[in-house]
């Protein structure tokens, strides 16, 4: 969706405040570096991914990505945010400077370490996030945000430390491919590519809990399908809201619809600008903060028993 200048021109017309480009994968960058340098480094690091990445890279090579940034910068005036999907610190980090040189206004690091190895503790897993951020910040001056999942044992502490370490934004949350089980074919299958509006609640909780506690902005992602979803995220404390599935499902015009809904709601409630209500119902500001913490349905269960 963000792979063509034409689409991005249209997103700007629809009122998008910025565009985050599709992610380049760390593996793609390393693969290209290895090819250029004639090294077998990549094969040693990612043997299982080599075929897939080699083919993927043919169509999505990083020169095309840099050209996309340059072309977008000529065609639109909204910020163009480059994105890298990364899981480790190595030579790919040098590449961040090329994204900046191509004109990217900011960089989003899409980092996810699945904490599934029982031999690795939380500190070990989390260190990777800080190492990647520190490495990239040494290479670029543009703002860098970190897009994460909810799989942290101390999410509030980690995100606050990421903000102290120089992240200018935290994106809550990435949405992953999730496995499903086919009970007749006894096989693993994939769940839906697109989110549903019900998926808004986990990020909504965490946007509300963390708003005002980080030294950086919060961007909300996952499950925002309409203006009501956007307004909820802003009231919880998000500075920006990202939308993907709803635009795939309903077309580019969905962006304008969401913004019209927001403006109508602001008029109805006599708000002049978003900063008049961003965070109004965050954990810090609401008169009922316990609602953000509550996990168990004691009252409802009591009625059912
Ligand atoms: C087809 C498709 C491609 C995606 N590609 C990327 C990507 O390249 N990088 C990324 O960080 N997230 C990617 N995502 C995840 C979205 O950015 C977003 O985090 C997720 O879809 C949840 O937001 P939504 O509920 O608005 O769809 C992709 C999602 C979809 C549906």
Give a quick rundown of the structure.
By secondary structure, the protein is an alpha/beta fold. The protein has helices at residues 5-14, 26-37, 41-45, 50-59, 62-75, 96-101, 122-139, 155-164, 201-210, 227-236, 245-250, 253-268, 290-293, 298-304, and strands at residues 19-25, 80-86, 106-111, 144-148, 169-172, 179-182, 187-190, 217-220, 240-241.
Descriptive notes:
The protein has 305 residues and is α/β, with parallel strands linked by helices. The chain has 14 helices and 9 strands. The protein has helices spanning 5-14, 26-37, 41-45, 50-59, 62-75, 96-101, 122-139, 155-164, 201-210, 227-236, 245-250, 253-268, 290-293, 298-304, and strands spanning 19-25, 80-86, 106-111, 144-148, 169-172, 179-182, 187-190, 217-220, 240-241. It is globular. Residues 22-23, 83, 85, 110, 147, 174-175, 193-195, 221-224, 243-245, 248 line the site of flavin mononucleotide (FMN). Flavin mononucleotide binds at residues 22-23, 83, 85, 110, 147, 174-175, 193-195, 221-224, 243-245, 248.
Q: What features would you highlight for this structure?
A:
single chain; 305 residues; alpha/beta; 14 helices; binds flavin mononucleotide
Q: Extract low-pLDDT stretches.
A: none
What is the count of helical runs? Answer: 14
Radius of gyration: 20 Å
Q: Summarize the amount of helix as a percent range.
A: 40-55%
The coarse overall form would be: globular
* Strand coverage percent: 5-15%
What's the story with the biggest beta sheet? 7 strands, parallel
Give the averaged pLDDT, no decimals.
91
């Amino acid at each position: 969706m963000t792979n063509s200048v034409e689409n991005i021109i249209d997103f700007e017309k629809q009122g998008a405040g910025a565009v985050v480009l599709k992610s380049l994968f760390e593996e793609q960058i390393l693969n290209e570096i290895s090819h250029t340098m004639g090294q077998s480094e990549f094969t040693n690091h990612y043997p299982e991914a080599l075929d897939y990445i080699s083919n993927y890279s043919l169509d999505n090579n990083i020169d095309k990505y840099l050209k996309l940034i340059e072309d977008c910068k000529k065609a639109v005036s909204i910020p163009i945010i480059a994105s890298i999907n990364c899981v480790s610190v190595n030579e790919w980090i040098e590449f961040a400077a090329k994204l900046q040189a191509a004109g990217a206004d900011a960089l989003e690091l899409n980092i996810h370490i699945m904490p599934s190895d029982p031999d690795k503790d939380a500190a070990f897993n989390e260190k990777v996030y800080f190492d990647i951020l520190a490495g990239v910040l040494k290479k670029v001056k543009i703002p860098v945000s970190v897009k994460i999942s909810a799989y942290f044992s101390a999410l509030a502490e980690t995100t606050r430390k990421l903000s102290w370490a120089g992240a200018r934004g935290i994106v809550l949350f990435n949405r992953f491919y999730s496995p499903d089980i086919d009970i007749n074919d006894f096989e693993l299958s994939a769940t839906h590519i697109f989110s549903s509006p019900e998926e808004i609640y986990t990020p909504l909780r965490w946007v509300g809990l963390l708003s005002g506690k980080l030294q950086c902005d919060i961007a909300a992602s996952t499950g925002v399908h309409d203006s009501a979803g956007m307004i909820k995220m802003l009231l919880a404390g998000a500075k920006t809201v990202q939308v993907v599935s709803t635009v795939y499902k309903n077309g580019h015009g969905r962006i304008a619809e969401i913004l019209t809904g927001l403006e109508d709601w602001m008029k109805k409630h006599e708000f002049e600008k978003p900063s008049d209500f961003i965070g109004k119902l965050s954990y810090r500001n609401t008169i009922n903060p316990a609602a953000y913490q509550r996990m168990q349905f004691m009252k409802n269960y009591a009625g059912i028993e």
